Amino acid sequence: MRLTILLLSLCCAVSAWGAQALQPVRLQLKWTHQFQFAGYYAAQAQGFYREAGLAVSFLEARPGQDPVAAVLNGQAEFGVGTSDLLLYRARGLPVVVLGVIFQHSPLALLALDASGIRNIHQVVGRRLMIEDNSAELFAYLEREGIPRGSLNLVAHSFGTAELSAGTVDAQSVYITDEPFVFAQAGVNYSLFTPRSGGIDFYGDNLFTTQSYLRANPGLVAAFREASLRGWVYAMAHPQEVADLIITR
Questions:
Q1: How many Cα atoms sit within 13 Å of 125 on the Cβ side?
Q2: 130 lies in which domain range?
Q3: How many structural domains comprise the chain?
Q4: What CATH number is associated with residue 125?
Q5: In sequence order, what E strands does the chain have?
Q6: Tens of pLDDT along 121-135?
Q7: Residue 6: inside a domain
Q8: Is the pTM above the cut of 0.85?
Q9: Rounded to the nearest 5°, which phi and psi values hold at 103?
């Protein structure tokens, strides 16, 4: 009996130690939950983070929130950012890119046909809902001879209700997301991509801070490797991961 109790106590102690051994870290997303972050969800669901000794939590972005600032302020250890990270670094802010997830940025401007916008130059003076950290969009507009000061910018709501209602005339979208929604609804639209103007940025870059990397090089390497394993899995099993996102 004593041996049984001792073994049970030992098992409980080992289990508790194992749970405590997992290092909690937070990943700040740049948008709400969707397939855009599939690789990270896959890494968690497949146990890749646990194998790396990590307990990862995902933080959704909120309207008006800057995901880069959240990481710099210590609200998360890692983040998903755009190529604006180059601009932050150029300004002396200690961000470090750990991996490029999308070879090409999916960011674009979308205008419904009802707005009357048929070419990019017709956005001048119109109400545009553009998300934060959209350097490639503004670089594209500048290249087209459309300065930022000529635009009537509105804070992004993380939705499309305003565009559908006509309270904004165009908005930033991901070509993998909102165009599909409007196409499914039979709504005609025009899509303006920075790549059409010769602006080709990376998209959704995994990053951390320089100080966190220096203090935790092994942890950062483990998180990066587990995350990339997750992306390989997600790309090989897209339907499975899509179902996972919907379920959770």
A1: 1
A2: 107-197
A3: 2
A4: 3.40.190.10
A5: 23-28, 54-59, 78-81, 95-102, 107-112, 127-129, 152-154, 170-174, 189-192, 203-209
A6: 999 999 999 988 788
A7: no
A8: no
A9: -65, -35
